Amino acid sequence: MRNVLDWHVRIADLGRRLLWLQLLWVAHTLLGAVVLGIAPATAAVHAVLRRDHMAGEGWPGTAERERLPREFHRAWRRELVPANAVGLPLVAGWAFVLLDHRLLGTTEVAGAGALQVLLWVVTLVLMCMSATVWVLQAHFAEGPLRVLRRAAVLVVARPLISLGGAAVLAATACLYYVVPGLAVVLGIMAPAWVTTALVWRSGILPRPADTSDGEPTAASDGAPTPALAPSR
């Protein structure tokens, strides 16, 4: 009976925290006029979830934390430029893919079948990268091109993890389509929490040498890339 009660308390605490994060995500997306706010707000969500996992494993410097709104806002400000630099290429990639899908569906061209297969492969790779890139962005203090490259390497080196992230996005989209009200309650939190847990527990994220402040840290020289790092 005690174990059941503990589980109920943990689920309630998690639900309350995710709801707070969802409200903060909406507020900071609006703070950036949506266009410039959505990417850093998404990055801030993953930064907070990363620190949750670090605190759960007892990493140095994560026991004492700021209040959630302050921690989120600080992460949002830090990611205002870097996150947009990561998000814009992804948006451009999705625009290109969706436009090509529409053109192939309405125009007869030679080799349309082969082009359609190739386009679906590109779409799947883009979905895999979109699912995991924010987890990597939260963990590494690197430029946008290196973070995007890491996400692409992860698709090749650890395809099951990337496909798992893509499956989470697809399942969430289908669930929100069937039950639209869930999108208001869960929003980005459901896929972000599941994907972060998936990538974190896989052991592909190397532990930075200095985690005293919990900030994203670039991999040290000679360290393996996250996609190739051995499991903890």
Tell me what the structure shows.
By secondary structure, the protein is mainly α. The chain has one domain (1-58, 66-202). It is built from nine helices and no strands. The protein has helices at 2-31, 38-56, 68-78, 80-106, 112-139, 144-157, 159-178, 181-185, 189-202. Residues 209-232 are annotated as: Disordered. Keywords: Membrane, Transmembrane, Transmembrane helix. The chain crosses the membrane at residues 20-49, 80-97, 117-136, 148-171, 177-200.
Mass-distribution shape:
globular
Specify Rg, calculated over alpha carbons: 19 Å
Determine the fraction of residues in helical runs and give it as a percent range: over 70%
Distance between the amino and carboxyl termini: 33 Å
* Total count of strands: 0
Give the SSE string: HHHHHHHHH
Class inferred from helices and paired strands: mainly alpha
Q: How many domains make up the coordinates?
A: 1
What's the helix count? 9
Low-confidence stretches: 219-232
Strand fraction: under 5%
Instruction: Specify the biggest β-sheet.
Output: none
